[in-house]
Amino acid sequence: xxxPDKLVSTVCGGSLILAMDGLLKDHHAVTHHLGxxxxxxxxxxxxxxxxxxxxxLVTGGGVTFGP
Length: 67
Hints:
The chain has 67 residues and is of the alpha/beta class. The protein has one domain (8-65). The chain has helices spanning 14-20, 36-41; strands at 8-11, 28-29, 45-46, 51-53, 57-60.
């Protein structure tokens, strides 16, 4: 059985939840500016951006950063 494609997106501190579970390791991501150090410490590649789109993984820096 083939699994359907999944899109995972987070906004603000939600990125940290994924990162602390190891799901963002070696992925570019962004979170609230106060959590960028923690994001890096989890093995994620902290990006200085409002939104990071890696195809099936989209992270936003804050709730006001929506498109």
